[in-house]
């Protein structure tokens, strides 16, 4: 199966929750009136596009309808698709990992969003590209977290720098940086903890990890990727604010876009924050991490079954 078909298949729930509802609306609409816009608004909100982005889209549609004197609801769908693509950003934003090695990628986010899984997938892809990758087990909160990273590392064939459970993550990262230098690693990927509701302050811990990286390797971290779980919908937005202020995020990874109807949240994230979505997770396998290409994404979302898949 081609990459595009795979993406399209994985977005099936969001397509059902968003695009198919819009198609259904445009099919039964005779006239583009207030009721039409109200129903469209409800569909966008229901797919977690978010209040701000929804208002923006509806305003733009109203303006376009007026300006172009549109009467066919189908034409509105086409414009909506264009406007969505614009809100999602103009082009693919690659990772900043071609600086003088080691390039350091810090991966942050709350528990369960898919940080460790994303690191495994990313390590796999970077290795496929011929880069030398090293992982740092910076989530020292539970032994299981270190084990999980090691399982991925073994699967991918890269090494992990780790300490004992409960160790200082900053110390792990310090060691990992020394090792990365000694081994001429191209990319060091740092896993971190994500528990928000414990006594020790996660943000302070992450800031300290960041400070050590900055101190030991000026110019690093080259990327601070915030991992968000698409199935949490609008909750993801408050996480962006939190992490952006505390540790300075450079890009978003949106995981679990497969199996959720809340994929519209990617539009909310892209339009509300001045932060690119760099990668998307569309499954649990190694290949299920993709660079986020806004144009391709919208095409896949709006693609009809019969038009593609050959
Ligand atoms: N369906 C799906 N599951 C994912 C994706 N990314 C991660 N997961 C799952 O989410 C769960 C939590 O992932 P994990 O990497 O442990 O999250 P962490 O706590 O942030 O490190 C695991 O069961 C993963 O398999 C994705 O893109 N799609
Ligand atoms: Mg983890």
UniProtKB/TrEMBL annotation:
Part of the signal recognition particle protein translocation system, which is composed of SRP and FtsY. One of its GO terms (biological process) is SRP-dependent cotranslational protein targeting to membrane. Keywords: Cell membrane, Cytoplasm, GTP-binding, Hydrolase, Membrane, Nucleotide-binding, Receptor. This is Signal recognition particle receptor FtsY. Its EC number is 3.6.5.4. It catalyses: GTP + H2O = GDP + phosphate + H(+). Involved in targeting and insertion of nascent membrane proteins into the cytoplasmic membrane. Acts as a receptor for the complex formed by the signal recognition particle (SRP) and the ribosome-nascent chain (RNC). Transmembrane segments: none annotated. GO terms for molecular function: GTP binding; GTPase activity; signal recognition particle binding. GTP binds at residues 109-116, 191-195, 255-258. Belongs to the GTP-binding SRP family. FtsY subfamily. PANTHER family: SIGNAL RECOGNITION PARTICLE RECEPTOR SUBUNIT ALPHA. InterPro entries: AAA+_ATPase, P-loop_NTPase, Signal_recog_particl_SRP54_hlx, SR_rcpt_FtsY, SRP/SRP_N, SRP54_GTPase_dom, SRP54_N_sf. It is a peripheral membrane protein. PROSITE patterns: SRP54. One of its GO terms (cellular component) is plasma membrane. It is found in: Cell membrane; Cytoplasm. It comes from Calderihabitans maritimus. Residues 276-289 form the SRP54-type proteins GTP-binding domain.
């Amino acid at each position: 199966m081609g990459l595009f078909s795979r993406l399209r298949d994985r977005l099936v729930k969001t397509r059902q929750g968003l695009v198919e509802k819009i198609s259904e609306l445009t099919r039964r609409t005779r006239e583009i009136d207030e009721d039409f816009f109200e129903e469209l608004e409800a569909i966008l909100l229901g797919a977690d596009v978010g209040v701000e982005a929804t208002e923006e889209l509806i305003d733009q549609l109203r303006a376009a309808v007026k300006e172009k004197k549109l009467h066919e609801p189908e034409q509105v769908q086409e414009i909506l698709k264009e406007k969505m693509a614009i809100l999602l950003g103009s082009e693919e934003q690659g990772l900043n990992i071609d600086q003088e090695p080691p390039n350091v990628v810090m991966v942050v986010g709350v528990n369960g969003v898919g940080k460790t899984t994303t690191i495994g997938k990313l390590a796999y892809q970077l290795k496929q590209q011929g880069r030398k990758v090293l992982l740092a087990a910076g989530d020292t909160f539970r032994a299981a977290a270190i084990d999980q990273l090691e399982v991925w590392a073994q699967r991918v064939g890269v090494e992990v720098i780790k300490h004992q459970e409960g160790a200082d993550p900053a110390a792990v990262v310090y060691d990992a940086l020394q090792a990365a230098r000694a081994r001429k690693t191209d990319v060091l990927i740092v896993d971190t903890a994500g528990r928000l509701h414990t006594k020790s302050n996660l943000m302070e811990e992450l800031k300290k990890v960041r400070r050590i990286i900055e101190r030991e390797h000026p110019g690093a971290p080259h990327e601070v990727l915030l991992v968000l779980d698409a199935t949490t919908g609008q909750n993801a937005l408050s996480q962006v604010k939190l992490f952006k202020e505390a540790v300075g995020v450079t890009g978003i990874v949106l995981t679990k876009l497969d199996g959720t109807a809340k994929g519209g949240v990617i539009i909310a994230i892209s339009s509300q924050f001045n932060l690119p979505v760099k990668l998307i997770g569309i499954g649990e396998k190694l290949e299920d991490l993709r660079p986020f290409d806004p144009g391709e994404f919208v095409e896949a979302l709006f693609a009809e079954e019969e038009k593609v898949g050959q």
